[in-house]
Write a structure and sequence with these properties.
This protein is mainly α. It is 82% helix and 0% strand.
Length: 260
């Protein structure tokens, strides 16, 4: 692909990625989904340790947020399949390039495999004992807030989260060189992490790490939190970011379709 500039070129690029995802062998999609859950957890581990061990809470949030992006950078560079950014494959529906059930099938599969990766990392975190009592207490407090967050707040926070995340991913798509992609993503995802909004894949790791440690969090509340944050992330990335970009680009996209 050449340099990606403007909503039309960006939308064409997302359509190209959507076709690529749809044609991937099932095993590759499964493995890349699990890897994405693992990568996001890696960034979360460092973020939690720094946040719990920094005396100044504000500085702890900043430094923790600054290391968190390594996970999403790994997803883009390696590459892997992450539910939140993959919500933008909804562009293929807007452009009438595929059926909606196929897109939902792909997103559901990626969502579940991301969960497998996050849950695996939560188990390894507990079994390895890498978290001190202070870090685990910090993690449990964070997870408890997420598990019992009021529905409207959780939904809106999740929508906002994926507007930020998918905007950062779109900016990375705009870059040709890997170093540029890394810098743009690092800045964008740091903004997301500082905002404290709800990213469903990161939340899998937080919630299950706390749950496996014996925290008083009901499994039903974990399911509630993940389903609602997953829906909000879908709206933010799959409806708002990809939808608005397609709205600006659709005339050119339809013109290109007629020419080909």
């Amino acid at each position: 692909m050449g340099q990606i500039s403007g909503p039309t070129a960006l939308t064409e690029y997302v359509l190209h990625l959507s076709k690529d995802k749809a044609n991937k062998p099932l095993l590759i999609l499964l493995v890349q989904g699990i890897l994405a859950g693992i990568y996001i957890a890696i960034g979360a581990i460092a973020s939690l340790i720094i946040g719990a061990n920094t005396t100044d809470p504000g500085l702890g949030v900043f430094l923790g947020s600054f290391v968190f992006p390594v996970g999403i950078i790994a997803v883009l560079i390696m590459p892997a399949e992450l539910y939140t950014s993959d919500c933008m494959v909804m562009t293929a529906i807007y452009a009438r390039r595929t059926k909606i059930y196929r897109i939902f099938k792909i997103l559901a599969l990626i969502f579940l495999t991301n969960m497998v990766g996050g849950i695996l990392m939560a188990l390894l975190t507990n079994w390895s004992g890498i978290f001190s009592a202070e870090v685990m207490k910090y993690t449990i407090e964070k997870a408890t807030t997420k598990a019992y967050m009021p529905a409207r707040q959780l939904l809106v926070s999740s929508i906002l989260c994926n507007i930020i995340v998918c905007t950062g991913v779109c900016l990375a798509y705009r870059c040709q060189k890997e170093l540029s992609k890394i810098v743009v993503l690092w800045l964008s995802i740091t903004v997301f992490a500082i905002s404290g909004t709800e990213h469903v894949v990161a939340n899998v790791y937080y919630l299950f790490t706390a749950y496996f440690s014996g925290a008083e969090i009901a499994l039903s509340n974990i399911i509630y939190s993940l389903l609602l944050s997953g829906l909000g992330n879908f709206i933010g990335g799959g409806v708002i970011v990809s939808g608005l970009n397609y709205l600006m680009a659709h005339k050119d996209i339809e013109k290109n379709n007629r020419l080909h």
